[in-house]
Amino acid sequence: MFSDPLVKKGCYVLIYDAIQAADANDEYTEAERASIHKMAAKMKIPEAKVIELENLYKEERALREKRIRIWYPEGIPGEDT
User: Fold this and answer.
1) What is the 8-class DSSP label of residue 4?
2) Where are the domains of the chain?
3) Closest to 3 (Cα-Cα) out of 47, 46, 43
4) Other CB atoms closer than 10 Å to residue 45's CB: what's the count?
5) Does the chain have fewer CB atoms within 10 Å around its N or its C terminus?
């Protein structure tokens, strides 16, 4: 099943979403990372692809934080800083 190209792309999304979920508390621990890498290996996703997805998530998160700093230099209204 995981050899189907369309399923493989869906697996990439699943791994990316798992990375996002693991970092939801602003802490992507080594235990969480190991679990995600183990899950990816079972889906036959290459280690290099998982690292690429982790890096993509980090880049997108950094851009989101930059956008927030630009839009709300005094902090997001209604949020405690």
Assistant:
1) S
2) 5-71
3) 43
4) 20
5) C
Q: From the centroid of its chain, how far is CA 81?
A: 24
Q: What is the pLDDT of residues 54-66, one digit of tens each?
A: 999 999 999 999 9
Instruction: Output the CA angle 39-5-17, nearest 5 degrees.
Output: 40
Phi (first) and psi of residue 80, to 5 degrees:
-80, 135
User: Taking all residues of the chain, what is their mean pLDDT, rounded to a whole number?
Assistant: 91
Q: Which residues make Cβ contacts (< 8 Å) with residue 1, sequence separation at least 6?
A: 7
Long-range contacts (CB closer than 8 Å, 24 or more residues apart) made by 8-13: 8/45, 11/40, 11/43, 11/45, 12/45, 12/49, 12/53
